[in-house]
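Subject: Protein entry, chain in single-letter code together with its fold tokens

Category: Structural biology, sequence-to-fold work with a learned token vocabulary.

Notation: Tokens come from a learned vocabulary of local backbone shapes, not from coordinates.

Start of record: The labelled sequence and token lines come straight after this line.
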Amino acid sequence: MILANVRGRLRGPDLRLVALALARGDAVRRARYERLMLEQGPDTLLDEPGLLEALLAVRTLAVPSPALFAYVAVRHTLRAAGVDDRALADYLAALLLEFGDHDRRSRVRRADDETYHYLVDMVEDLAGLDDAGERGFLLRVHLGNYSLWLAGLFPDYIAARRSRKGGPDLPYYDELGRQGYRLAAEHRLAEHFGVAPIYRTAADRFPTLRVAFNRLSDRVFFPNVSTPEKILRNL
């Protein structure tokens, strides 16, 4: 299962690159950032305004690792949306990295024979599963994760599918995503793995998280794509 562990994956080279990127070539500033990191820990620098832009502007052989870039991108995007929760940002960064790996987004765990491409199929299967079992828990989590992944990062795909085939709109994903995280938070395994508070917050703030992911998608992942929906989102 996906855990909030991206910050724990950051290593010395990642943190040195943070100081280098923020310094923008100024040796004095770089030394100050490195000293600040030693005195206060990495979180202060990882939250530094302008870090995401600085990482996007890096033009050296030292490029951000996937873990560093995912965490900073999610953390700064959520803070801009008024969600100042490091554990949630850590979890959602892990979600981006995990679901970006091949077809992991369509499976409740990395090695699983069943694949899901529609939320309605997950809801249908949930109705027939033992609520207390592990698979029921994983499917609840996946309903939340997949809803946020798809509606957050690919809103234009959803809009196009709705236009061509009458597919569901973004509020539909908000509602089912919220429901998935809420049900997951209530499961005994959520407390066991220490993720219940994360799921509760994700359920409570789901529409805000989805809109934040829309902005992340527009700004970072698909900055050169222009659609009528994207123009309206950014007015």
